[in-house]
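Usage example:
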Amino acid sequence: MTPSKAAVIRSDLDIVIARTLARDTAKSIGFGAIDQARIATAVSELARNIFLYAGTGSVTVREIEKLGRRGIEIVCEDQGPGIADLSLAMQDGYTTSRGMGMGLPGAKRLMDEFTINTEVGVGTMIVCRKWRS
Amino acid sequence: MNSIRIPILKVGNVLIASIQVALHDASAVQFKDDLLEKIHTTKSRAVIIDLTAIDVVDSFIGRMIADIAAMSGLMGARVVLTGLQPAVAITLVELGLELPNVLTALNLEKGLELMQKQEQLAQEDESGYDTF
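Running the assembly step on the lines above writes:
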């Protein structure tokens, strides 16, 4: 298991730090410019969700490998309010904040694998992966 | 909190803002306010926002750009986005943000040409008002 790097999300400045970390890691794994932009944008959306809904949380980034393929794994965790209606939150255009309602569905489209564990009052954990083609 | 101020230059009737750093949310909001104020004080009719140096446009910044275009339009100024990197254009569409009401041009030079052409058309129109 390769070492992971984490960014703590406490302010909107940390959103930029998290996506820079993800982009740098993606670059070192060998992702091309377009995939780097996809990964950085997905992390930006997820980190903003942490900041908007939970206030604080963390984004952890690491390199992964499966059957000789290299990829990137991003874990976003918070102890925020959780998501009451996950299917609604995954719909395009649905938002309970000042966002555009494309954070979760948009991030999912930009990544290859995307799983959410959420519990109201406990928090949310999102794991997403992208594999090098 | 300290927010980065984006310089806004006036060239003739056109305002030009070149965004050179990764914008965090507060500086994006600051930029919107500064730009609208500058349109008001300079009575500019066109705004070029150059994104050549920007490698990530997420939904927040995307919405800010759409808002700036809509608000500038209400004040009588057109907005043209220039220099969008291929990776940024691809990511915006995949994210679901297509900015349908925002004018775009390949680079700053083409953006200026577009604005000058539109300005000529507006002047040829005897009423002096923009035609939509």
